[in-house]
Amino acid sequence: MHVVEEENAKKDPLREAGLLDLLALCDSFFVTSGKKILPYSAGGEQQELLEKITGRTGNLRAPTLRIGATLYVGYNEELYQRVLATQVDG
After folding, report:
1. Which domain holds residue 56?
2. Number of structural domains, the chain?
3. Which pTM value belongs to this model?
4. Model confidence pLDDT, tens digit, residues 8-30
5. Angle at the Cα of 26 (from 23 to 27), degrees rounded to 5?
């Protein structure tokens, strides 16, 4: 896997205006909530998606990974194993 861009969310947190720009680049989203993996698609309920991908401070939750037009937010070992396996097998 080749990393095209990496950003430090502590130094430069992504807030709502930047989040909307990021969402516009994606057509599918996977957000972790505890052990659950919640799928969303572009054109769905944007306010609900924003609430799920932001923390209490209103910043984008970490870790966040964008591969092509898919955004992965939050950590879930099963999800990351699947994502990384498809990138390696690719």
Report:
1. 16-89
2. 1
3. 0.85
4. 777 888 877 888 899 999 999 99
5. 115
